[in-house]
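Minutes, project check-in
Item: structure for the 433-residue chain
Input as provided by the requester:
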Amino acid sequence: MTGQLWVLLGVFTIIAALGAPLGLSMLAAGFAYMAVSGQDIGLVTDQTMNGLYNSYLLIAIPLFIFVANVMSASGVIERLLACGSALVGHLPGGLAQVNVVSNLIFSGMSGSAVADASGPGLIVARMMMRNGRYPRGFAAATSVASATLGPLMPTSIPMIFYALIANASVGAMLLGGLVPAGLMALALMVAVALIARRRGFPREARTAARELPAILLRALPPLCLPALLLGLIYSGVTTPTEAAAIAAAYALGLAFFLYRTLSLRGLLPVIFATVRTTTMIATIMAGAFVFNYAVANENVPQLIQGVLLSWHLSPTGFLMCVNALMLVLAIFLDEVTILLVIVPLLIPIAQALGIDLVHFGIVVVLNMMVGLTLPPHGLLLFVMSGLTGTPVGEVFREIPPFILAMLVVVLAVTFLPELALFLPGRAGLLGTG
């Protein structure tokens, strides 16, 4: 390692350890590297920022964040919860099953694990804790695991980032996540049922058949959003960014005209929340691109690629190494940082081994979602602990069965690429950028 690379890593580690946001830590480290290596900071920054913010695809990210915030503020979650309860509330562990299904449905509008956790996840967790019906640790752990479904469905922010850096088809990525998302939800529901039977958790009353049509009809407008997005993108009528804009308009139409639950005054907090989240992501992106410039300038990707290729790994062996790496990194780093800093180093190796980049992207996102639930530093554990007032230790004790269920799905998608590639292949989206 050169002295300049030590400066890069040292400055990043020190500033991050002092508690600075990761985006600012990476920016400071990148600038320090350029200063000691005698490079023109202004030129590098200009090239990096132009390459980053001239991407038309990135406009979709704040639009999808806006959609999630509008849906949360307009009372859509309650309709989705009623739908979930009618469908699966009668199964073993009734409300926990509702938690999984509601998060799966809402994930088609949020694209974010944290948004799912703080939306339907929080509401159902509080319902589960009411009157001591479920242990609070189990309620919080169920919401933690269910929230991982968000980035596997259409509007997935991590998949948009991955498509950008891998030059993969956004439509292929969004379609590719549907089967793994369904498998993940099914695995979590099986885990809930097994735990509920062993511990005697209650079921909800079965909804009368005559009431089902009305409940489903009330939830139908928001349920149409993921189908609308995929239809627009897959048909070629719009680009992903244009589809995101239409989704934002659709969400506003539901909130203002159909449900009439959002006013112009109520829209202001939604806009402010969207701006805050977008600014945070933009800062991480800027820092990651400057950091990546320094890493690439030191030929680190070539060194890593040379080492891994010298191991003569099979494609499956490489993916297993990636699984282990992603799970460890996701404990400490947020998903955007992993996608923008670590994944670009691995994509050339995946290509060299003949791994389809859509399959590789789905495996990466699945691993990052599992990482968000891993003790001792999984982000969602602390998010849900703080939102519900549940001690982190109680959540830790209840989360292992859900982690095991999710890892089964990760391994299935790793060894069976068709689980991720079947739908994009049928749609003719594989091999497109």
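Outcome recorded: Residues 36 and 181 are 46 Å apart (CA to CA).
No further action items on this chain.
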